Amino acid sequence: MSSNDNHKGEGHIHTHQDSPCWSCRGSVDQRAPFCHACGMIQAPRPGDEFQRLGMKADFDLDPKDLEKRYFAFQRKFHPDRFATKTSREKQLSLQHATDLNEAYDRLKAPLSRAEALLESKGAGKQDQARTESDPELLMEAMESREALADAETADEVAKLEARTRMEVEVSEEALSVAFAADDLEGATNIVTRLKYLLKLLQETSRKRLSLHN
Amino acid sequence: MAYSEKLIEHYENPRNIGSFEKDDAGVGTGLVGAPACGDVMKLQIKVSPEGIIEDAKFKTFGCGSAIASSSLVTEWVKGKSLDEAGEIKNTDIAEELALPPVKIHCSVLAEDAIKAAINDYKEKAAAPAKGEAAE
């Protein structure tokens, strides 16, 4: 019972990386979600999205493999498995399941996967707050948004949309090349460009739909 | 979430939308963007030989708060000296429009845009005529 745990002063869910199993006190491998000795579920350890899914931190990944791993882990933490367990175990499994879902969602899309990879390598996070990036990039973003604003027919908008979609694909391929060469600065710049492109794509779809109606 | 009346007023009737010719000697252009949300903002000032901002224009592709923030700044800077305009803080903008906490970055964008426009003007004024920065 969790109330007993609290009496023993073990009420905190977040344990340290090197802490032993909260149940049997045996030592647990840093990443293992379950204790080797007693099989008890452990609190999620700090780790990046790739570690959560047991994958190599790489931009190029096999989407089928990612999905397979996700479903395998998801089964392990499924609420049904913990229906008869203590509230603490239920809570821990829920935390694992939430972390897992977030990690999967982030790795699935190329842009967020690139961001996750940059973060795991200790780069890219501060770029979010920068307002004056590459002037050429901003000029390009401004000009394409102006072109979209000026487009009057669904046909014009569809052309812009197709072009943007192609630019997105090219950028995603460029990301793969940059990460393969461990060019983190290059990858960070492509990530920024991709964000403006995806925003543009969103706006083109919106305008195309509104012109159709 | 309830937005302030001033914010809605600027969003629905934005002041000074448009562009100046960016190569004109008296024009300073600030181009900034927020990678996180994909917003882009262009703010331009027209400066008199005495260093007073005579006119200002903006073009913003972004949310209502970003549009209102840039609209407000173009109103504020008119008639100000470059130094005075450079003193505008994002907190002044956020306060005037009563921006909610999640929209504070829009006021940061507007502050950075006016600063960038002032810098652009000063760089142009300092550079010899026809002098172009090396690519």
Give a structural overview.
- The complex is a heterodimer of chains A (213) and B (135).
- Chain A has eight helices and no strands.
- With 213 residues, chain A is mainly alpha-helical.
- Chain A has two domains: 2-108, DnaJ domain (Helix Hairpins, Orthogonal Bundle); 127-212, HscB, C-terminal domain (Monooxygenase, Up-down Bundle), CATH 1.20.1280.
- In chain A, helix 3 packs antiparallel against helix 4 and helix 4 crosses helix 5 (110-120).
- With 135 residues, chain B is of the alpha+beta class.
- Chain B has a single domain, classed as Sufe protein. Chain: A (Alpha-Beta Complex), CATH 3.90.1010.10.
- Chain B has helices spanning 5-12, 64-77, 82-86, 90-97, 104-126; strands spanning 27-34, 39-47, 53-61.
- In chain B, helix 2 packs across helix 5 (104-126) and helix 4 (90-97) packs across helix 5 (104-126).
- The N and C termini of chain B lie far apart (46 Å).
- The model of chain B has no long low-confidence stretch (mean pLDDT 91).
Structural class of chain B comes to alpha+beta
Which structural category fits the helices and strands of chain A? mainly alpha
CATH architecture of chain B: Alpha-Beta Complex
Query: How much helicity do the residues of chain A have?
Result: 55-70%
In the CATH hierarchy, what is the superfamily of the largest domain in chain A?
Answer: DnaJ domain
CATH topology of chain B: Sufe protein. Chain: A
Estimate the strand proportion of chain A: under 5%
Integer count of domains of chain A: 2
Uncertain runs of chain A are 1-16
Say how many strands of chain A there are.
Answer: 0
Shape, principal axes of CA atoms of chain A:
elongated
CATH class of chain B: Alpha Beta
Task: Give short descriptive properties of this protein.
heterodimer; A: 213 residues; mainly alpha; Helix Hairpins; Monooxygenase; 8 helices; elongated; disordered N terminus; B: 135 residues; alpha+beta; Sufe protein. Chain: A; globular
